[in-house]
Every structure is written in C-alpha cells, then in structure tokens.
C-alpha cells in the first residue's frame, strides 16, 4: 500500500535580518504509511514544526517533493504548489483551536459549512464523526463545559468530518498538566487505533513520542538523526545526541582496547568494560585505540552492596545521592572518575551517602556509539 504522506529530499531555508541563512529543514526524506502515526521529536529549533508546516502548506519549501495520498502537492522540479485548502488534510493545534462561542456540533460542522455542504448532509456527517470519537451526546455543549479529553475528541472529529484521513498534530498536548496529558495520550492512542487515520505528530516530549508513535523521527539541526520504532531508537541509539535526547542515559567516554568474535573491550574512566558484539551495530570497523562513547540506561545497571565480584563489568563505586522517585529510587554513584545514574527497584535497598557499593552492567546492555566531535 502506498504511503499516505511522502516527503522527498525537502529543504527549507530562511534569511534572518543581517543576512544569516538558516536551514530548519535540510534534505529531509520520510514517509507515513496507512494507519500510521509518525512522531517528529526534537528540541526547540530542530526543524520539526517547520517540517510539519511545509507538509500542511503553511510554509513553502525551497526544494524537494511532498506527496499526499498519491497526489503531488509540492514539487520544486515540476513547479507544483497546492495551497493548504486543496491538500485534503486536517490539523490539530496546541489549543485544539475550538471556538468557545460555538457548540461542539457547530465546531465540528464548521469545515463543512465553509464548503457550503447542505444542512442535511452536515447533520449526518457531524453526528457520525462525534459518534466515531465517542462523544455523540455532547453536540449541544460548549467547549468550556467539557473536559480536556473531550475537547481533544472534538478537535479530532472536526479533522475527520472534512473527509481527510491525514491529520497533522502540532504539539496538541503541550498546554495541559502532566496528569491530564498522560490521559489524553492514552485516549488518542486508542482512537488512532480504532479509527485508523494517518498522521504526523510534533512534540518535544520524549514520553509522548515513545507512547504515541508507531515510528519516531528524531530531528537534529534540520536533519533526521534517527528514524525507527520507539523501542529500537531507545535501545539502540545511533549517536550520543539520540541517546541523550531519547530517554535518560549514562554516556561515558571510552577507548577501544580490544575486540574478538564476541566481545569489545572499552577502557573508560570508570574502569574496563566489555560489550557484547551481538548487540552492537556500530562496532564494525572499530580498532584498538578508537575513541567511542558508551551508552548505558539507568535501569540497566544493577546495584549491590560490597566489593566487586567476578561478574563481567563489575565496578567499585560510592554513593553520592539517593532520591526516591515513586516507581524507583534514583541512586547517583561515582565509579572512578565518572558519575552514573541508576534506577533501582529494590525497595529494601536503603543506601547512605558515601557508602561503598558495586555496580554491575551486563555486556549485552552496553551500547557503543561514535564519539561526538
């Protein structure tokens, strides 16, 4: 099945006052499949919103191609430029952009009235859209009288009633508190699976990206630094940037001191580590003396009292701080010249500051990436 959205070698530049040229979208290519939600993740200024606005037709790129549902809506080579209203897409913004003086029914009906659809057809399609998103009984209510989750459903119903199954989301949950945001993510995930629309979703929230995206594109300075399923990106980051931005990671400098058919030896300021080659995608071509970075997630370090044992990657350390965080206790230790964050789920482990401990890291849990310049 053909992708619902195709972005091919897209570039967008701006010229600032003073003549400086910036490139928020720099030769980006990606696609969104049928019934797929692809999340654009990255910090402010990485280009994710500009890319979304290019797909929506709110920004005109300099070069490249955009195809929506098999129809080219922008092509620099062919001189094609379709305005937003002809792209058959819908967009949901940070505030959901609901008109407070209109009822839920009127908000959802608005795009149909703009097209001069008959009132009979409007009534039928709005009722169908509201029922689809699970708020069929709220048509007479005003947005200020319903919950945040219900407002999200109204915005989605308005997007779907226009007849488009391609929806663009511009950080729609950024203006609500953490508890409500978690509930809205769950509701959106359920609706996306049930309704089956395709979409691009912009966020700077890592948790949001991991929970919602079928695939996640991590953007860095206008380029895609990683693109894949959330678990793949989290467990096998391709660079220090991706490892540090997606989730929490201990990133240690290291130097390759030896390799064989099964293991890679890395000297770090915390001590000698061995990483399993079977779980490393970036070690091919590495030789003794090469500088690398070691990536270890906090939940992948085992913490115990006492001195190091004979287990691989067993290192002596001392406790610097211990912080109770509800589901886990975060323990910060110093091993050699490095600090490490550890998420322990051992409720009986009550450690004192400066206490001697042992940290153990299984070789298959270690990832090795190129050292950042």
Describe this structure in words.
- It is a single chain.
- The chain has 373 residues and is α+β, with helices and mostly antiparallel strands.
- The protein is built from 8 helices and 21 strands.
- The strands form 4 sheets. The protein has a 6-stranded mixed sheet, with helices on both faces.
- The longest helix is centred in the middle third of the chain and has 18 residues.
- The two termini are 41 Å apart.
Give the arrangement of secondary structure elements.
Blueprint: E1 5-15, E2 21-32, E3 37-41, H1 48-56, E4 63-68, E5 71-75, E6 80-81, E7 90-92, H2 104-114, H3 119-132, H4 148-161, E8 166-170, H5 178-195, E9 198-203, H6 206-212, E10 215-220, E11 223-228, H7 230-235, H8 240-245, E12 250-259, E13 263-268, E14 271-276, E15 291-296, E16 301-305, E17 314-324, E18 329-335, E19 338-344, E20 356-361, E21 367-370
Parallel strand pairs: 3-9, 3-10, 7-8, 8-9
Antiparallel strand pairs: 1-2, 1-4, 4-5, 5-6, 10-11, 12-13, 12-15, 13-14, 15-21, 16-20, 17-18, 17-20, 18-19
Helix pairs in contact: 2-3, 2-4, 3-4, 4-5
In a nutshell, what does this entry contain?
By secondary structure, this protein is of the alpha+beta class. The chain has eight helices and 21 strands.
């Amino acid at each position: 099945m053909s992708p619902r959205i195709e972005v091919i070698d897209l570039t967008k530049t701006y010229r600032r006052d003073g003549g400086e040229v910036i490139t928020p979208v720099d030769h980006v290519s990606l696609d969104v499949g049928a019934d797929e939600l692809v999340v654009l993740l990255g910090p402010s200024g990485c280009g994710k919103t500009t890319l979304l606005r290019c797909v929506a037709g709110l920004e005109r790129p300099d070069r490249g191609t955009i195809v929506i549902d098999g129809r080219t809506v922008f092509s620099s080579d062919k001189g094609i430029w379709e305005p937003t209203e002809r792209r058959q897409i819908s967009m949901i913004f940070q505030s959901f952009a609901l008109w407070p003086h209109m009822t839920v029914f009127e908000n959802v009906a608005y795009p149909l009235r703009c097209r001069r659809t008959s009132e009979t057809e409007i009534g039928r399609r709005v009722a169908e859209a509201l029922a689809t998103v699970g708020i069929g009984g709220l048509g007479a209510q005003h947005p200020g009288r319903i919950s945040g989750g219900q407002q999200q459903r109204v915005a989605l119903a308005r997007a779907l009633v226009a007849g488009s199954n391609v929806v663009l989301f511009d950080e729609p949950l950024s203006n609500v508190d953490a508890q409500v945001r978690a509930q809205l993510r769950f509701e959106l995930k359920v609706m996306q699976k049930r309704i089956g629309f395709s979409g691009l979703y912009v966020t700077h929230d890592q948790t949001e990206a991991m929970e919602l995206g079928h695939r996640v594109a991590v953007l860095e300075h206008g380029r895609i630094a990683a693109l894949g399923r959330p678990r793949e990106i989290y467990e096998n980051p391709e660079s220090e940037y991706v490892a540090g931005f997606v989730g929490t990671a201990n990133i240690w400098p290291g130097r390759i001191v030896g390799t064989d058919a099964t293991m890679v030896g890395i000297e770090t300021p915390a001590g000698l580590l061995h990483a399993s080659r079977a779980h490393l995608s970036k070690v091919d071509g590495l030789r003794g003396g090469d500088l690398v970075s070691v990536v270890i997630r906090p939940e992948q370090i085992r913490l115990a009292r006492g001195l190091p044992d004979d287990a691989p990657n067993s290192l002596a350390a001392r406790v610097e701080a211990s912080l109770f965080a509800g589901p886990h206790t975060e323990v910060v230790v110093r091993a050699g010249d490095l600090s490490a964050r550890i998420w322990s789920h051992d409720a009986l482990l009550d450690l004192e500051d400066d206490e001697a401990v042992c940290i153990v890291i299984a070789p298959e849990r270690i990832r090795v990436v190129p050292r950042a310049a």
